[in-house]
Amino acid sequence: MRRKVIAGNWKMNMLPNDTIDFINELEPNIKKCESEVILCVPYTDLFYAISFCQGTNIHIGAQNVFYEDSGAYTGEISAQMLKCINTEYVIIGHSERRKLFNETDEIVNKKVLKALENGLKPIICVGETLEEREQNKAIEKITDQTEKALQGLTKESLENIIIAYEPIWAIGTGKTATSKDANEAIKAIRAKVKEMFENTDITILYGGSVKPENAKELFDEPDIDGALVGGASLKASSFESIIGAN
Ligand code: PEP
What we know:
This protein is an alpha/beta fold. An eight-stranded parallel barrel has the order 1-2-3-4-5-6-7-8, surrounded by six helices. The longest helix is centred in the C-terminal third of the chain and has 19 residues. The chain binds phosphoenolpyruvate (PEP). The site of phosphoenolpyruvate has 13 residues, from strand 8.
């Protein structure tokens, strides 16, 4: 089923104390919101965030996971490790990981499968570069990334998946896709999922410089179910305004 979702991606920001302050400020103000609210926090904040959000309507996610179960993989975190502290979501294939840590579509797919196998819900990111958009290759790129990320999944597992369309040129740059372009891209992802699984109900978010000022216009589009928010999720007040717009 399509759900309204607002997810924050804190990236490499916020210490445990900041996390607790943020949740204390946000939580009383979003008790009645219509969207599912997710915070994807650094590994070192996970335990605090999960403990503090128990019994609230804030869901907690990690920002990455490794695709092996255990072994000599220094510095990596397994799906089981995340699950055993009650992590619910995990971002997979963020463009920063694809670019800075050489994550390929094959790696993204392995991580998605491993996350699902362990009961984690993946938030899968896809998106085109500026060059690809200017060459009219955006739709081809994102539908290809979607197809590769979802290889080997069952139709039933789509219920536990969120896709985030994040044009790379819009992330952290202050530039946002127009709401029409964002909707067109998300519609194309939905069509690809339908072609693969006979399902159009998957939850798909837009991400890329979403702020309180531009959120409503994006959320008014028929195919956009919410947002994955980076910079504007670091302040409880701006995140709350975005939640209120959906
Ligand atoms: C992101 O990191 O996923 C993101 C969308 O960042 P920002 O909102 O800062 O562009």
